[in-house]
Amino acid sequence: MNDSKHPLSLGQQLMTRLDEAARCSLPGGGVTRLFCSEEHRRVLTLIGDWMRQAGLTPELDASGNLVGRNDRALAGERTLILGSHQDTVVEGGKYDGMLGVALPLQALQALKDEGIELPYGIEVVAFGDEEGTRFQSTLIGSRALAGTFDPASLEARDADGVSLGEALRDFGGDPGAISSLARAPEQVLGFCEVHIEQGPVLEHRDHAVGVVTALTGIERHRITLTGKAGHAGTTPMPGRHDALVGAAEMVMEADRVLNATQELVGVIGKLDVRPNAVNVIPAEATFTLELRSPDPRGRRVGREQLLSAFANIAEARGLVLDMQQTYSAEAVDCADWMIEALEAASEECGQPAERLFSGAGHDGLAMHDVTDIGMLFVRCRGGLSHHPDEAITAEDAEAATRVMMAFLRGFDERS
């Protein structure tokens, strides 16, 4: 048991906090915490306490972000923004997103305990929604800060028919005031996020941390195939217009193209069938297609190849095809000076930190529109993420916290 003679290390303290946050979840495996949910409300109570312990003043903003500011930020001085998202996928892990909220607060509290006052403004943001699990409208909070929030997304509805705008008002936000959250670029020093890698590179290199060079581009499409329902026992096989069979052929074509194309990955992650009955030929199948690549040209070529193949499959099977793009975010580069600052901080802490690319999207995709961005990756076991078995070690948590402390101490010399 811990006592005053054997205080917990920074890494152990951080792991304890992350365990506490993980209990703010719907029942079931892993962590499920959706935007503007009761679990969201509960975790913000925890995060608000962490912010106050770090010397920050917490405030829920109009878009559902919890923002903690130090005195200099409250006084209007130029500000460095840190943070990540609190929301999760369904039955996700306890570190994706939340690590980037808890770790900078742990680092700031440690600096405060050492009597170090940073000579610039600090904001730590627990972004409300990055995963898009509840409303399929991602980066809500970070787009609000960047000034690129689309008010039309307030009409998006969850599975129960509740609109994003309604949920936000019930949560204590103010949809009508979101536009006022946009940060003035001249007032922002930069945005830096800590995140688990969600890949195996750091584990293969046996490094605790890595410095990110760029964030991937992402696009999503909704594909709907309409055929003709019929009795499964009396309708002859030849001439059927089975929407699910057409969708299955498209899934296999997507897998073939994605495996054959360099620097392009993707997934068909959701499939809905109507009428979804055991003895009825499917009349309609709707599925999602997500494509990711750092190369916009490669993503465009892959998209065109797939959508052309889908059109040919639909025609051959007598199906009506409807294809709609639902989301798009171009790849963005991390700022050279931010990369170098994180490398210098890692070197100061004795941590090798090679550069690597992020294959996932993050709040930095939005924040890039208002300021320079940087990102520090932390090793995760097996590269596993969006899964209940997502894991990091206390030793790596300690190393990353120390790197963030060094980054913050030296930041004024580089900004």
From TrEMBL:
Q: Which residues bind Zn(2+) 1?
A: H85, D96, H195
Q: Which residue numbers delimit the Peptidase M20 dimerisation domain?
A: 216-296
UniProt keyword list: Hydrolase, Manganese, Metal-binding, Zinc
In terms of InterPro entries, this protein maps to:
Amidase_Cbmase, Bact_exopeptidase_dim_dom, Peptidase_M20, Peptidase_M20_dimer
Protein's UniProt keywords contain Cell membrane: no
Q: Which cofactor does it need?
A: Mn(2+); Zn(2+)
* Spans traversing the lipid bilayer: none
* SUPFAM superfamilies recorded: Bacterial exopeptidase dimerisation domain, Zn-dependent exopeptidases
Superkingdom of source? Bacteria
Give the binding site residues for Zn(2+) 2: D96, E131, H386
Presence of the UniProt keyword NAD in the record: no
Q: Which residues bind allantoate?
A: R220, N279, R292
Q: Kindly state what the record says about how the cofactor is bound.
A: Binds 2 Zn(2+) ions per subunit.
One MF term in GO for this entry?
metal ion binding
Q: NCBIfam families, from UniProt?
A: hydantase
Q: Which family does it belong to?
A: Belongs to the peptidase M20 family.
- Subunit structure, briefly? Homodimer.
Name-wise, this protein is Allantoate deiminase
Q: Which organism is it from?
A: Chromohalobacter marismortui
